[in-house]
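As the next step, I needed to go through one protein, both as residues and as discrete backbone shape codes, included below for the reader:
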Amino acid sequence: MDEKLAKVDPKLLDLLVCPLGKGRLTLNRQTNELISESARLAYPIRDGIPIMLVSEARRIED
């Protein structure tokens, strides 16, 4: 498992929701991001900390 990803508490990941769409988030281990399917945004995880700012999120394109 990625060292930076290992620092994220799994219980925290269960509690987090998308700040824009208020929907559930899915962890993408390959890109080290939390994905909001409803808002089509990917929130980065930096140094084990989820960055839950819409301004920092990457727009998911089809």
User: Anything to note?
Assistant: The beta strands are 26-28, 33-36, 41-46, 49-50, 58-59. Residues 43 and 55 are 9 Å apart (CA to CA).
